[in-house]
Each structure stands twice: as structure tokens, then as C-alpha cells.
Amino acid sequence: MDLFDRRILAVLKDGKPRGFQQVLSEVNFSRNTLRLHLASLERQGMILKAKTLKNGPGRPSFTYSSPPETKQSVALALTEPHTTIVSLTFQKLKHLCRFEKGGYCKNMRTKCEAQNCLQITKGQ
Which of 64, 68, 73, 90 could be joined to 114 by an S-S link, Cβ 3.0–4.6 Å? Predict the structure, then answer.
């Protein structure tokens, strides 16, 4: 996470939706830099992009916000700048587990599922 990402997250950390122009005026980057970093943060699941209703023709406008479920990750990213936050689905994560073999957990001796996994820290 670089300086640009941290500044964007600092602007959006309150969870209120903001338009592109609002974010642009608060972070003071170039339009293309902001666009690239917003897209990257959206892919990582750190921010939400929502289409707003528009009366009449023209391009749609979007708002950006920080979802409540990422509040802890955003706070960590802002306070610990050298921390890397990785977001994986359990389906991708279980293939990295040394106990998983063909959908079966050799450690727990049951089907490999997120709720059964001892490798996942609960409550975080």
C-alpha cells in the first residue's frame, strides 16, 4: 500500500459516499493517478464503487466509500504503513494450506471448510 492508497483511504474512512470530483479535490492527485488507485483499491475490496442514478442522458457517475467490514483493515493500513493487507477467498486460501488434500483436511479429518479450519484466526 503506497502513499496514494493511504491518502484515498484516509478520505473515505468515515464510510460516507463521495463522488470522483470530491475525492479528487481532497487528495489533490492527477485524475489518472486517482482513477488507477481507486480501481486498485476496489479490486482489493478496500473500497466500494456504486453507480448513482442520473436524470437524463450522459455518462453515469459513481460514488466511492469504505465498506464497514473493512474498517479494521483500513485503520491498520493507515496506522502501519508498511503492513501489507492480503484478501483471499477461502477457496484460494485452502490450496495454500499444508493440511488440505483434495478438499479434505488431513489435520481435522473432515471436509476442508472455513468454519472447520484451525489455521484461520477467528474473530479478526
Answer: 90
DSSP H helices in 44-120: 71-79, 90-93
Cα–Cα distance, 109 to 54 (Å, whole number): 54
pLDDT reading at 120 higher than 70: no
pTM: 0.61
Task: Please state the domain extents for the chain.
Answer: 3-79, 88-124
For domain 3-79, is the CATH number 3.90.950.10?
no
Q: Which residue type is seen at 60? A: P
Q: How many Å separate Cα 60 from the centre of its chain?
A: 23
